[in-house]
Write a structure and sequence with these properties.
The complex is a heterodimer.
Chain A: E1 2-11, E2 14-24, E3 29-33, H1 40-47, E4 55-60, E5 63-64, H2 69-74, E6 76-79, H3 91-101, H4 110-118, H5 134-146, E7 152-156, H6 164-178, E8 182-187, H7 190-196, E9 199-204, E10 207-212, H8 214-218, E11 227-231, H9 237-246, E12 250-256, E13 261-266, H10 273-283, E14 287-292, H11 297-305
Parallel strand pairs in A: 3-8, 3-9, 6-7, 7-8
Antiparallel strand pairs in A: 1-2, 1-4, 4-5, 9-10, 11-13, 11-14, 12-13
Chain B: H1 2-16, H2 20-39, H3 51-54, H4 57-69, H5 71-79, H6 81-86, H7 92-112, H8 115-124, H9 129-155, H10 160-175, H11 180-187, H12 192-199, H13 203-211, H14 217-241
Classes of the chains: A alpha/beta, B mainly alpha.
């Protein structure tokens, strides 16, 4: 379990992290979201024991990160922001160094080969880390973090700079490990939340402003239960728009003329799908597409953090 | 202890996986030989000893040791790898001592490669090999002292250039602490007792007594304490500033 109790970090007059408290339990994949400069990385660093909090405390699996630092670090796999490594070392040399520090000796040494296979690093083992592409560097960083099969993983922007295929790979890896581990991912990529997280904390200006499931968060969106339709014939658009706006349950209608798409936003998130499809039948409008939205995270994110 | 060993091995590997190590060793040997034969007049003196060689070591180290020590911590902080290292299950102490020992071993390798000089004097005459051994030990201690000062200076900054300059200045001060050019700077505003204390910290006086072949316990204690002091200072500085 990760436990953060009233963590604060001040740099002079600047408060980077302000009274952040939360707990993460096994099986949870927590997305730690926020705009750049919101205090995500500072919080991660305090949990990892790299930055000393100004006040408050944190523990990893019951080990206080300051009082019992070595035990906390042993239970923790940490990918720092930007996946720093010793650039002059070869991938093999670097991972062996980490395996040594993590005490992988004897039979447990087999874990090293397993990690190399899992992150598909076999082809670059003898290359120096400086010469690797961004994607490989990130994978070396991930390999380092999961080397000792820790119960807790803190990953600071694990997919930053990866191409879509590599992002998919990393997310598959996280999903695979999610069953028996506690994982915290800091990110500003919202699609990541849908892809891997079952809980979201949003921070802004150092404070927690939301703590919810991705579904719960999406439900706060104006677009929660909104219905968007595309018309077969564009000339019917204005008539359909005013008919939709006249429905009592519809709060607002948005038009995107380019694709002749109409989006009807409900009042207080009440379901309007049936009403909209009935209306279309009544008006004799042929629909190319009818789509129920669950809510837009990016919109919630902007509203909350603005 | 295990962790210190792992860090020493990684660091030493790091020296030799880049051209730095080879460039350093070549320059060290070239300059050391040049000083010995030209300034030291090794042949002209007609004496079978290595005095002309060791006499110049403090001045040689003054510039070459900060070149080794400048990257110890400045580079870790600049590249961010310090965050990786400090979130592994190692203590700051193990990291500081491990890096220091690796740098010292590296300096020792460079020094050991001057062995042809020792063979030469033994071929030319019959020198006091005990004195030569003492001088080699003194030279190693001098290197260790400078490295500890340089390690501290490197922890102060993210820039290797700044770490080098601070290292040279810092080494210069401890080297000449007993000489007027340093004591005069303190005399005007510090009490005499403190000025005397600073003066007694001079590397040069302690090195010169060992170089003459006298291995005094007091000199060994002096170097050990000075190294310990600067390594503690390195740990303290890093503990406060590692994340900045």
């Amino acid at each position: 379990m990760i436990k953060s109790e009233h963590l604060c970090k001040r740099y002079g007059s600047l408060t980077a992290v302000d009274d952040v408290s939360f707990e993460v339990r096994p099986g949870e994949v927590l997305g730690f979201l926020g705009p750049n400069g919101a205090g995500k990385t500072t919080t991660m660093r305090m949990l990892a024991g790299f930055v000393v909090p100004t006040s408050g405390k944190a523990s990893i699996c019951g080990h206080d990160v300051e009082q019992d630092a070595l035990a906390a670090k042993s239970s923790l796999g940490y990918l720092p922001e930007g996946a720093p490594a010793y650039g002059e070392m070869t991938v093999r040399g670097f991972l062996e160094f980490i395996a040594d520090l993590r005490g992988l000796v004897g039979a447990r040494r087999a874990r090293l080969g397993h990690v190399i296979d899992r992150l598909q690093l076999g082809e670059v083992l003898s290359q120096s880390i400086d010469t690797l592409s961004k994607g490989f560097r990130r994978r070396v960083g991930l390999a380092q973090a999961i080397m000792h099969d820790p119960p807790v993983l803190l990953l600071d922007e694990p997919t930053d700079g990866l191409d879509p295929n590599q992002k998919h790979e990393v997310r598959a890896l996280i999903n695979e490990m999610a069953r028996d581990k506690i994982i915290v991912i800091s990110t500003h990529i919202l699609e990541e939340v849908d892809a891997v997280c079952n809980r979201v904390i949003i921070v802004a200006r150092g404070r927690i402003v939301a703590d919810d499931s991705p579904q719960g968060l999406a439900a706060q969106s104006r677009y929660h239960n909104a219905v968007s339709i595309r018309l077969e014939r564009g000339e019917q658009l204005p008539a359909m728009q005013s008919a939709l706006a006249a429905l009592p349950a519809v709060a607002e209608v948005e038009v995107s003329g380019r694709e002749s798409r109409l989006t009807a936003l409900p009042r207080q998130g009440s379901p309007i799908l049936q009403a909209v499809s009935d209306l279309a039948a009544r008006e004799g409008v042929e629909l190319k597409e009818l789509h129920l939205e669950s809510g837009r995270l990016d919109e919630v994110f902007r509203t909350i953090t603005a | 202890m295990r962790n210190v060993g792992i860090i020493v091995r990684r660091e030493l590997g790091g020296y030799f996986s880049t051209p730095i190590a080879y460039i350093f060793i070549v320059i060290f040997l070239a300059v050391a030989s040049w000083l010995t034969f030209y300034l030291g007049q090794f042949y002209e003196r007609g004496q079978a000893d290595l005095d002309p060689f060791f006499t110049f070591h403090p001045w040689l180290y003054l510039f070459l040791i900060p070149a080794i020590s400048m990257r110890l911590w400045a580079e870790e902080r600049k590249s961010g790898s310090i965050e990786l290292l400090m979130t592994q299950p190692v203590t700051l102490w193990q990291a500081v001592v491990g890096k220091f020992i690796a740098a010292w071993i590296f300096a020792g390798i460079a020094l050991a490669l001057t062995f042809p000089l020792w063979i030469t004097v033994n071929y030319l005459g019959s020198p006091d090999n005990g004195a030569i051994l003492a001088a080699y030990i003194g030279s190693l201690l001098l290197a260790a002292g400078f490295l500890a000062v340089g390690s501290f200076m490197s922890a102060l900054t993210r820039s290797q250039v700044v770490a080098f300059i601070l290292g040279v200045v810092g080494c210069f001060v401890v080297l000449l602490a007993g000489y007027p050019m340093v004591t005069d700077a303190f005399r005007s505003w510090l009490p005499q007792a403190l000025v005397d204390a600073i003066a007694s910290l001079s590397f040069l006086t302690h090195f010169e007594s060992i170089e003459k072949g006298v291995l005094d316990v007091r000199d060994l204690v002096y170097f050990a304490m000075l190294i310990g002091y600067f390594l503690i200072a390195t740990v303290v500085v890093l503990d406060v500033r590692k994340a900045e």
